[in-house]
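## retry 2 of 3
previous attempt timed out at serialization; input unchanged, resubmitting
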Amino acid sequence: MVKLTFYGGVSEIGGNKILLEDKQTKIMFDFGQSFTFGAEYFTGWLAPRAINGLGDYFALVCFQE
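## retry succeeded, writing output
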């Protein structure tokens, strides 16, 4: 008998964690971070990046050569 247990991602966006069990075999699937948890601690990465003007263009051109 196959058993699925959900540890995250239910009634929320992100953070899906699923445990699949069959006899003596267990496989844990982890599909990222929960946005609910991240909002409490890691809000800086949600902010838009500052405009760098031509600096981005020059960095890209220099990196390709």
